[in-house]
Each structure stands twice: as structure tokens, then as C-alpha cells.
Amino acid sequence: MVFVSASVDVYLFTAIAVTLPVLFYLRQRNSGSRPEAPYEPYLIILVALHTLYILYTLILCWPFNLFSRLHIPLNASPDTIRSTLVRRAGLDVDAPLPRSLEELLTRLSAFEMRTLYVRFGQAVLQECEHCKTFNDYALFALPRAFLEYVREVAIIGMLTIRETGRERWRTYVVGALICAAVAEAYWIATAAIDVPENGLDVFMWHDMLWALRQLVFLVTPLLTHFLLPSTPSYASNPTAPAHAAQLALEQASRRLVTLRYTRGAVMRDPRMRAAAGDWWERQRVEGEWAREDETVRRVADRLGKGFDETGVEGEGRIRKITREAVASFRAGLVAAQAEPS
């Protein structure tokens, strides 16, 4: 059942099929762990909006083609084309057509213009009033396709900005788009136009290359953002681990200072001192329960996290790691104190 029209219904259902997974994905990321990049949700929204736009272009903005839409041969006379248009539109035989269509039919009187129609499409021949030669039509058609490729390069640039982990793919993806643009221009300029005697089943180069271009634009951002492997930020920035360690140490230092003042404040308040004492006593009792349980000690030793004085392999692993950490920390303090100021 058609609600609005076949093409509009197809686009609406396609848009819903694209939007719902994106919303679900964003909700899962918000409820889960923090994304790798702070602007990752915005990039996902950008890809979704771009996908909806390209689908809209493919489904609802397909280039109009008189010969394909009306199923008339490419070598049909202008009078035949005009009578077919009038009949399909339900107009009188002598009813005037729009000025742009009348001028297009006049131009199609020459066979060379029909080959240009196949190369550049109906919109170029219908809108360019001053064009006469192949070069004129090529220069008129170039900015539209060029701006579309520039738009896609800008989209890829935003999807591969710093801290996304995909910076190294920018050159390759942009290079692929440039190769696609060059290939499209080459085929439009050099493709052979074969017109059979009946004038039917002519390969419309402009329409097919336009469709391939939109498909490339549809797939490229999806592949770039979701399928190309991303690398951690420290892989491209060697100083990132040191910077992250410095931030962690500064945060730990602030917490230790805060803990010292908090400890002093707690001890000055009788109620808080009593609550803190109860908490530590409860932790001591629960710790003794765990340490005195034979099953817990045995499982901890088997998992390599033994805390007993003598585990499966001598001293318990937790105690050994703790002793080594304390010794390393003490050695660092001694070395820092021994350095001349």
C-alpha cells in the first residue's frame, strides 16, 4: 500500500531503518563506558545525517532523463519527443511546453547534442543557454561534480581529525576519492557512445556515473568511521603516555592531600571518629574471616593472587608484589632526598 508515493515511502522506511540503529548505538554508548574521543557521538550523528542525505539524493533526486523515463529511442525526432511529452502530461496537442523544454528539443535536433546528452545529462543541456561545444558543456558540468567531491573530502576530514585514531587513513581515503573523480571525468570525456539503429537501450553514461558517484559517497564515510581500524592516540603521539602518566600522578597527589586533611577533619569530630572506627573494625573482622578461610586461601593461590605468608610457590603473590612496591617506593624517596637541591 502506498502512503504518499512509492519513492517517498521507500525513503521514509529507509530513513527509519538508518535512524533507529544510530539512536540505539548512541544510547548504549551513553549508558556504557566513556567513548574514546569526546566528540565520537557527534561524528556518528554526522555520518547518519550524511547517509540520510545521500539516500535522499539517490531515491528522490535521480536525474531526469526524457529518453529513459518515456522509453523513447535516442534517435527519435524532436516532434516525436514533444508529442510524447504532451500525451503523457495530458495536455492538448497544441499546448505549449515550458521554455526550457522547448529549447532542449531544439538543441536535440543535432545528433551531436544527443551524444552530449548521454555524457552530461539532461540538466546540463537544459540549463546551459550559452553552451555550444563539448568544452562549454564540460565546463558547465564540472563545478557541480567538483563541489560534491569537495564536500566528501570535508566529511572525511572531519571523520579523521585528531584523537579519533583514524588520522593515518585520511590520505588514503582522500586519494581514493580523487582517483574516483579522475576516473569519472575520464569516462565522461572518452566513453564511446553506441547508438543502435532502433535507438533503444543506449547506455546513459551520465546517469550511471552519477549513481556510482552517489554510492561511493554513501559507502566511503561508513567504511572510514566504522570499518577502518583505529589506532590509540599514543601510537601517533609518543608523548601521550608520559602526559597521561603525569596527569594520573597529579590527580593522585591531589587525592592524597585531600585524604590527609579529610582524615584530620574526621578525627576532630566525635561522631565521625566513631563511625570511622566502626568501619575500620568491620573491615578488619571481614578481612580476618577471608584470611582464615582455607578455601579462600586455596583459590587465591590457584589464581595467582595468594595472600598467605607461604603460598603455593613460597610467599603469597599479593604480599610479594606489595613488598616489591614498598621497596621501590622507598628507594625512590631515598634517591630523591639524596639529590642535591
From TrEMBL:
UniProtKB keywords: Membrane, Transmembrane, Transmembrane helix
Species the sequence originates in: Rhodofomes roseus
PANTHER family: CHORISMATE SYNTHASE PROTEIN, CHROMOSOME 10, WHOLE GENOME SHOTGUN SEQUENCE
Stretches that traverse the bilayer: 7-26, 42-62, 171-189, 209-228
Protein name per the record: Uncharacterized protein
